[in-house]
Structure formats: structure tokens, C-alpha cells
Specification:
Blueprint: E1 2-10, E2 16-25, E3 30-34, H1 41-48, E4 56-61, E5 64-65, H2 75-80, E6 81-85, H3 96-106, H4 111-124, H5 140-152, E7 158-162, H6 170-185, E8 189-193, H7 197-203, E9 205-211, E10 214-222
Parallel strand pairs: 3-8, 3-9, 6-7, 7-8
Antiparallel strand pairs: 1-2, 1-4, 4-5, 9-10
Helix pairs in contact: 3-4, 3-5, 4-5, 5-6
The structure holds adenosine-5'-triphosphate.
Length: 228
């Protein structure tokens, strides 16, 4: 489903983000990307989202080499990848319902599908009664659940999460993890970068550890710093 083959990213100033990454993720996996600050997690996430292109190597998502897609082909990625960020990134002047509906309009989903899917995903994340609220009327956890609803509204096969619990208190963070686990069990592949050692330890999923831009550990089921 996701293949990174010999991927290196060197930034224009000469610093290396990641080097010679070989990472293969199968359909339905839940994978944590961990590592200390500066180890390359954000670079790896940005490469998957094509916010950056690799200096060397190939990135294949759902059988398509995304490093060879041009600007006009970017909607391909929007359909295949849902994204959740640490800082939610909701549109402040749109309601919860409109934030989710907007993401569906971007990929030109028909109106009747939007009217069907938005209430369904809002109820899935426990926000069935909050559709008319604006982001500033929501708690942090509710804002992140809105962002999660938006990310899965188009039913993408892959969900990319960059520190999705970073701004949340522990209890709220576990609520988000429970939702991600449910979404994963429904078949969505999840890749999540995080610093949250306790969450990684509790979930017992695949853990890929980066250090200075290299993968130094890749364990099938484990905690934040288990031996490979
Ligand atoms: N825009 C950039 N220009 C130059 N170098 C960069 C840039 N972004 C990241 N780097 C470098 O790439 C390396 C990896 O950084 P990256 O942000 O991917 O790490 P990270 O694991 O996400 O760190 P953190 O946990 O602090 O977010 C670091 O050495 C960093 O200085």
C-alpha cells in the first residue's frame, strides 16, 4: 500500500532530513513513527503527503509513484490520503458540518453523498449534535474529532496523522486513539508520527524508530523503545 524505496531528502541548505529510507506498509496496518526531535519524522510525513519531494528514491502510494505526479495530478493524493495534524487546522469561519462538507466538495463529491456522509462521520466521532458549532465553541478534543471526521469523510484508504494528540490532555488523547483504533479496524491503514511514549506503549502496534534520518528499529508489535 505504501512503499518508500531508498528515499533520501536533502534540504536546499544541505541538511539531511531522511537518508536511504526503505519502508513498506501493508493495507490495514497501524504504524507509529517515533524518534527524538530532529530524527526525521516530520520530513517522512511531508514526503508521504507530497509536501516535499525526495531528492532520491521512489514513494509509491496505492501503486502510484507519487514523486512523479505533477501538480494537476495532486487530487489523486487527496482521495487516497486523509490527514490529521497536531494543530487541528479547521476553518474557523465554518461550522463543524461545513468543515467536513468542504473537504468533500474539494474532491467534487456529489451533494447527495455529502449530505449522507457528513452526518455519518460526525456521529462516528461522537459529534452528531455539534454540526452547527464553530471551532472556537469546541474543546480541543472536539476540534480534533472534527478534524478526524474531515480526514475520513472521503473514505481514504490511508490516514496520515502527525502528532494528533500533541495538544490534548492524556484522557482526551486516549479518546482520539480509541477512535483511530476503530477506524483502523474498519480497514483504514494508519501512519502516525508521535512523541507520546505512553500511547505507543499502550497500543502495541508496529513501531518504526528514526534516528538522524535513518530507520534504526522496526518492530511488529511493541512499545516506544522495545528492542527489535
Ligand atoms: N525546512 C528545512 N530546511 C532545512 N533542514 C530541515 C528543514 N526541516 C527539517 N530539517 C532538518 O531535517 C532533520 C529532520 O527534521 P524533522 O523536522 O523531520 O525531525 P522531527 O523528527 O520531525 O523533529 P520534531 O520531533 O522536533 O518535529 C533535522 O536535522 C532538521 O534540522
Amino acid at each position: 500500500m505504501i512503499h518508500m524505496n531508498n528515499v533520501t531528502k536533502v534540504y536546499p541548505n544541505g541538511s539531511t532530513g531522511v537518508e536511504n529510507i526503505n519502508l513498506h506498509i501493508n493495507k490495514g496496518e497501524f504504524v507509529f513513527i517515533v524518534g527524538s526531535s530532529g530524527s526525521g519524522k516530520s520530513t517522512l510525513m511531508k514526503l508521504l503527503l507530497k509536501e516535499l519531494d525526495p531528492t532520491e528514491g521512489d514513494i509509491i502510494i496505492n501503486k502510484v509513484k507519487t514523486n512523479e505526479l505533477n501538480r494537476r495530478q495532486i487530487p489523486y493524493l487527496r482521495r487516497n490520503l486523509g490527514v490529521v495534524f497536531q494543530d487541528f487546522r479547521l476553518l474557523p469561519n465554518k461550522t463543524v458540518y461545513e468543515n467536513v462538507a468542504f473537504a468533500m466538495r474539494v474532491i467534487e463529491a456529489p451533494g447527495r453523498i455529502i449530505r449522507r456522509n457528513v452526518p455519518a462521520v460526525l456521529s462516528l466521532v461522537g459529534l452528531g449534535q455539534k454540526g452547527r458549532s464553530y471551532p472556537n465553541q469546541l474543546s480541543g478534543g472536539e476540534q480534533q474529532r472534527t478534524a478526524l471526521a474531515r480526514a475520513i469523510a472521503n473514505n481514504p484508504p490511508i490516514l496520515i496523522c502527525d502528532e494528533p494528540t500533541g495538544n490534548l490532555d492524556p484522557e482526551t488523547a486516549y479518546g482520539i486513539m480509541k477512535l483511530l483504533d476503530d477506524i483502523n479496524k474498519r480497514g483504514t491503514t494508519i501512519v502516525m508520527a508521535t512523541h507520546a511514549r505512553d500511547i505507543v506503549d499502550a497500543m502495541q502496534k508496529r513501531v518504526v524508530t528514526l534516528h538522524k534520518g535513518h530507520i534504526i528499529r522496526d518492530i511488529e508489535k511493541g512499545g516506544y523503545s522495545d528492542e527489535a
